[in-house]
């Protein structure tokens, strides 16, 4: 084969290879989800044989993928993620080990070996050809050969360069529907707005599609996960909804909407204690007004209370009569259960039963401030002046046991106000306000009943 | 032997030399590293400040491991359905009871690939009254390099991760480690 033919063949091979590369290469990741997938393929599952984090479905691989999604959405670099995973799981997790330290030998040794072999082979070939170089050649032939070589080199470079440009056009960061800057079509925020807008129009399927697209861009978007879960539950699939909502809570434990929807779904599934737990977290997060409205609209508090009352009444009704009942400490009931049970009995109209029930608890826990306060509160709410006075005695005892008892302070403030002792009620309320932690249900009780206004008025 | 034969032998020698050097270096690297099991039983995080455990517990309270600086802390990764976790749980309860009065050592459990409902039921059934971190658990599990459950780490009062246990722990075992490390200069 002549030198000219060989050059053309080389140019055609370069161009063909470039086109094949351009056709097959997917370009850099377009979305965060793509980037998570690409990253997961670069790391070994720590407990699997020959599987990457992307391929494996063992729990540890799932946890790593979940955390990768959070890091990617936080804008962390690949190097940051690699450093974190190597710091926790050692270098064995990295399919592309770093070039520094002793691990660098993995890269250096093959290059050294290959380079050494190549040097030896080239040296031997040159020594074989050395005699041919000594043969004299005519000067015109040498010039012509050099000129031809230059021309063909330029031709090959031009063809290869053109192929490279074409490859760049077809495999850059832009997709076929991409903008000229190569950026993705829309941001997560825009997609969430679009989803909300579709939801407002009653287009649930369209909203779900928009949330899915947002999650494709940003898999750890707490907002998209939350509303995707909520819409899924409204479509009658609570089990899948729970997965979305739990993911949202894992990403952002302080996102009130996720807690609220999780509570509602728990109620729908008949899990009253789970709903109560989520509601307690929701209350501690200082939720925005729209979330409170939604909460009221869905009657979440009432439903949680009803569910807890029903559950605990089932236990209480199963207990033997008071005289034959085992001591409270020997039952599986806790103080919180006992207080809920007393409230449930009172709500059912059995005030005497409720008081007697707490008396039974006090036999085992005579100095428990919560039980004393609970019993006092039952009596204070009776409306009977004598029972009111008895209630205050219990509230005093509760505060003797624990001067910082939030329930004791709030309930006694109500009792004193009912007795006309506004200054005493104000002092209790001020002591409550000074507490480091004020239970949200007590804060709400004070506000809903307008106690501050009543005292100052 | 003629000169052609000598040339061939010399060439073979020159080719074999770099290959032999590379192979020897590779063997040296592999021979001086810990075995796969030893690497699994140790951890790159031991000896350094323990990675953060920050999140929300299953009862809805915020948790931050840093708030417990000054005590020994057992960071226990677990799953409610894993049999070894169920088997080790009474030992954790025992350890907690031994130290709850003095407050010199505490336990925090971190949920690993499980649901909050399952975990609540697990603790209701098996006892235990220490924080169980659910939200933020993935970040902690990956930061500690957890590969399976149960897996526990001991964090010294200084905040340094000093010990790792793959598989179930025992109350006596943890106390022995604490006693040994406390006695060390």
Would you give an account of this structure?
Chain A has 457 residues and is mostly helical. Chain A has 22 helices and no strands. Chain A is elongated and about 130 Å long. Chain A starts with a helix and ends with a helix. Residues 171-185 of chain A have low confidence and may be disordered. Chain B has a seven-stranded mixed β-sheet with strand order 2-1-5-4-3-6-7, sandwiched between helices. With 185 residues, chain B is α/β, with parallel strands linked by helices. The model of chain B has no long low-confidence stretch (mean pLDDT 85). Chains A and B meet through helix 3, helix 4, helix 5, helix 10 and helix 12 of A and helix 1, helix 4 and helix 5 of B.
| Major sheet strand order of chain B | 2-1-5-4-3-6-7
CATH class of the largest domain in chain A: Mainly Alpha
The chain-level structural class of chain A is mainly alpha
Proportion of strand residues of chain B: 15-25%
Distance between the termini of chain B: 70 Å
CATH class of the largest domain in chain B: Alpha Beta
Task: Count the E strands of chain A.
Answer: 0
In CATH, the architecture of the largest domain in chain A is Alpha Horseshoe
Named at the architecture level, the CATH assignment of the largest domain in chain B is 3-Layer(aba) Sandwich
Rg measurement of chain B, Å: 24 Å
Helix content of chain A: over 70%
Average predicted confidence as pLDDT of chain A: 81
Describe the global form of chain B: elongated
| Structural domain count of chain B | 2
Cα Rg of chain A: 37 Å
Report the uncertain regions of chain B.
none
Percent of residues in helices of chain B comes to 40-55%
Instruction: Tell me the span between the first and last alpha carbons of chain A.
Output: 108 Å
Order of helices and strands of chain B: HHEEEHEHEHEEH
């Amino acid at each position: 084969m002549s030198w000219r033919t060989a050059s053309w063949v080389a140019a055609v091979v370069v161009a063909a290879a470039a086109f094949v590369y351009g056709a097959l290469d997917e370009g850099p990741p377009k979305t965060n989800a793509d980037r998570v997938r690409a990253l997961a393929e670069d790391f070994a599952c720590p407990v699997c044989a020959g599987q990457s984090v992307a391929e494996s479905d063992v729990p540890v691989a799932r946890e790593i993928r979940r955390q990768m999604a959070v890091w990617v959405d936080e804008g962390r670099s690949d190097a940051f993620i690699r450093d974190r995973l190597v710091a926790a799981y050692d270098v064995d997790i990295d399919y592309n080990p770093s070039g520094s330290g002793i691990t660098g030998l993995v890269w250096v040794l093959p290059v050294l070996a290959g380079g050494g072999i190549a040097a030896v082979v080239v040296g031997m070939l040159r020594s074989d050809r050395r005699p041919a170089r000594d043969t004299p050649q005519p000067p015109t032939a040498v010039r012509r050969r050099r000129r031809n070589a230059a021309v063909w080199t330029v031709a090959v470079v031009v063809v290869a360069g053109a192929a490279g440009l074409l490859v760049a056009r077809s495999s850059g960061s832009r997709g076929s529907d991409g903008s000229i800057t190569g950026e993705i079509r829309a941001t997560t925020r825009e997609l969430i707005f679009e989803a909300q807008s579709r939801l407002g129009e009653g287009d649930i399927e369209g909203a779900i599609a928009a949330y899915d697209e947002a999650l494709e861009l940003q898999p750890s978007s707490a907002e998209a996960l939350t509303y995707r879960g909520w819409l899924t539950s409204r479509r009658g699939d609570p089990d899948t909804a729970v997965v979305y909502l739990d993911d949202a809570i894992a990403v952002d434990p302080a996102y009130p909407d996720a807690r609220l929807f999780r509570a509602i779904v728990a109620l729908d599934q008949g899990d009253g204690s789970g709903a109560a737990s989520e509601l307690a977290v929701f209350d501690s997060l200082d939720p925005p007004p729209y979330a409170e409205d939604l909460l009221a609209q869905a009657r979440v508090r009432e439903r949680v209370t009803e569910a807890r009352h029903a559950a605990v009444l089932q236990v209480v009704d199963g207990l033997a009569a008071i005289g034959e009942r085992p001591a409270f400490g020997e039952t599986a009931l806790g103080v919180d259960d006992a207080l809920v049970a007393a409230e449930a009995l009172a709500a059912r109209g059995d005030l005497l039963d409720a008081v007697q029930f707490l008396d039974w608890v006090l036999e085992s826990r005579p100095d428990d401030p919560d039980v004393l306060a609970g019993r006092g509160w039952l009596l204070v709410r009776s409306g009977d002046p004598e029972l009111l006075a008895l209630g205050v005695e219990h509230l005093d005892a509760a505060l003797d046991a624990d001067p910082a008892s939030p329930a004791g302070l709030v309930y006694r403030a109500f009792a004193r106000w009912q007795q006309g002792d506004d200054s005493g009620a104000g002092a209790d309320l001020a002591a409550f306000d000074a507490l480091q932690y004020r239970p949200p249900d007590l804060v709400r009780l004070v506000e809903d009943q307008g106690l501050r206004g009543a005292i100052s008025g | 032997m003629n000169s052609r034969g000598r040339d061939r032998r010399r060439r073979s020698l020159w080719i074999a030399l770099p290959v032999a050097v590379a192979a020897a270096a590779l063997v040296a690297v592999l021979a001086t590293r810990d075995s796969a099991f030893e690497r699994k039983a140790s951890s790159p995080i031991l000896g350094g400040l323990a990675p953060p455990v920050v999140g929300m517990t299953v009862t809805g309270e915020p948790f931050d491991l840093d708030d417990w600086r000054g005590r020994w802390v057992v960071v226990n990764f677990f799953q409610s359905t894993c049999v070894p976790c169920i088997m080790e749980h009474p030992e954790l309860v025992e350890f907690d009871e031994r130290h709850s009065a003095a407050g010199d050592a505490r336990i925090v459990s971190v949920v690993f690939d499980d649901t909050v409902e399952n975990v609540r039921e697990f603790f209701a059934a098996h006892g235990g009254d220490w924080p169980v971190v659910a939200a933020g658990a993935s970040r902690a599990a990956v930061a500690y390099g957890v590969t399976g459950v149960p897996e526990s780490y001991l964090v010294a009062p200084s905040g340094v991760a000093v010990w790792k246990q793959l598989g179930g722990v025992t109350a006596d075992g943890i106390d022995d480690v604490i006693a040994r490390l406390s006695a060390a200069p």
